[in-house]
Amino acid sequence: MITKRIIPCLDVKDGRVVKGIKFQGLGDVDSPVRLARLYSDSGADELVFYDITASAEGRALFTDILTETARQVFIPLTVGGGINTLDDFDRVLKCGADKVSVNSGAIRDPRLIGEAARKYGNQCVVLSVDVKRVNGAFRVFAKGGRENTGLDAMEWIRRGVGDGAGEVVVNSIDTDGVKQGFDLEMLQKVCEIAKVPVIASGGAGRTEDFITLFRTIPGVDAGLAASIFHFGEVKIRDLKLEMQQNGIPARIL
User: Fold this and answer.
1) 3-state secondary structure of 128
2) Which among 78, 72, 27 is positioned nearest to 231, based on CA atoms?
3) Which of 27, 103, 177, 186 has the most CB atoms within 10 Å of its CB?
4) What is the mean pLDDT of the chain?
5) In whole angstroms, what is the distance from residue 132 CA to residue 148 CA?
6) Domain range for 78
7) In degrees to the nearest 10, what's the CA dihedral of 152, 158, 160, 163?
8) DSSP code of 224?
9) How many separate domains does the chain show?
10) Is the pLDDT of residue 166 over 70?
11) What's the CA gap between 249 and 226, in Å, rounded?
């Protein structure tokens, strides 16, 4: 079995890391620079940095705080928020990002995924999808979970991977911040159609949630979480030791 990755997520608003529940009620957490350094030193496999209001506010991603954050990490860094053009890709890559996450920008112009994959390579393009159940169907939401696009989530993921996305982050709005476990039903469906690495996001509340995720859906490549790491409820090294004890391969420093 391939080593499973553990990825902390920095949701950044106005230069500060914030966290809410189901994408609502955002509260201040800490400095992204300090947290990035902490996670890089404590055994995280990668780090995700989202400027979570860039798309909703119709602006470009703030690059000053991103550049300072990137200087603190020696692990792969994925950056998203307000990515609408190839120029946006170029800008964040020059700030120190290793991969670029596209969400609302790709919904507005689906050609962006293929154009970016051809210019920068599939491994650089991450399709981030915010998914919520609407009348029993999985729908894609845009602008930080504020807008129901009406798109069928599975068909959208299938198209994005076909166009060249080298990785998919699946953000479950239904389970975000609830800490009752990952959305296993949704993730299983995604793994059946996406033959690229799939990152599960939304719902982690304890170590056992990661164990259940990787045991139940071996096709998931990584687990992403925010608040349980930010507030010290789960230590990354302890989590990985527990994973190994349960037969789930993990990289431990």
Assistant:
1) strand
2) 27
3) 103
4) 92
5) 9
6) 5-245
7) -140
8) E
9) 1
10) yes
11) 21
**Domain containing 50 — which CATH number?**
3.20.20.70
In a domain, 195, yes or no: yes
| Residue-wise pLDDT tens digits, 8-43 | 999 898 888 887 665 555 577 788 999 999 999 999
For residue range 41-88, what is the model confidence (pLDDT) as tens digits? Answer: 999 999 999 987 776 677 666 788 899 999 989 999 999 998 999 999
Neighbour count for residue 109 (Cβ, 10 Å): 12
| DSSP secondary structure, 39-91, as one string | HHHTT-S-EEEEETTTTTTT-PPP-HHHHHHHTT--S-EEEESS--SHHHHHH
Integer Cα distance of 212 and 159 in angstroms: 28
What's the CA gap between 128 and 167, in Å, rounded? 9
Give domain status of residue 229, yes or no: yes
CA dihedral 190, 174, 224, 81 (to 10 degrees): 90
Query: Sign of the C-alpha dihedral, residues 91, 56, 141, 52?
Result: positive
In a domain, 252, yes or no: no
pLDDT of 26: 59
Tokens found for residue 246 = 């349960």
Distance CA 169, CA 163 (A): 16
In whole angstroms, give the CA distance from residue 129 to residue 221: 16
Residue 253 lies in a domain: no
Instruction: Evaluate if residue 197 carries a pLDDT over 60.
Output: yes
Give the residue with greater pLDDT, 187 vs 14: 187
First to last CA, the chain: 19
The residues carrying an active-site annotation are: 11, 130
